[in-house]
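Exercise 7.
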Amino acid sequence: MRLLASPLPSRPAFRSGFTIVELMVASAIGLFLVGGVMSFTRFALVAFSGITTQSMINQQGGFAIELIQERVSKATSMSNGVAGNTLTLGFDNNYTVDSDGDGKPYNDRDRYELFQFIGVNATNSALCLSNKLVYFPDITKTNQRVLVKSGLRDLPGFKIFQVTNDNTAIIRFGIADAYAGDHYQSIDIQGSAVTLNRPVTGTNFILINF
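Solution. The predicted structure, written as tokens, is:
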């Protein structure tokens, strides 16, 4: 007796490709992920830009106040303009020569330096974007150094430069850098500087009002 093998049952054919619904779902997930990456990238760039800007204005403000204090300490005289936008410093070029004939060789005013605010006096950052602070190592020459390139502004109720008792300079200013809708960075600088070459007679004390 012979046994005949029965044919194997046919396997169902595998389906290839995706349905419209699957494609729509995959596309929606992909767009969601791309949108998230783009939003994160934008916020990261804004944050990085803000950190860079803040670091830049901190550096400018710190360098400016340190330079002013260093130059004031070596000056023999100082004065500020009526509006408080300039600080003029006198220097003795040779301490062994009494060029003004007052019997004191150390207090002459042979050369003048100038710190000058250029722009519009205001506290509003939008009005101060083009304001700057410059330094003239010699007022008889036109060469200048820009200490703060833009955004210099007044602090409310104060002048930028104020001289008290002929030996103390008070410096107050702010630096603002604003980009509408993205970020706003600012710094306020307040400091004093005292000349070490002040006279030994007359009013010889330091008065600082903040």
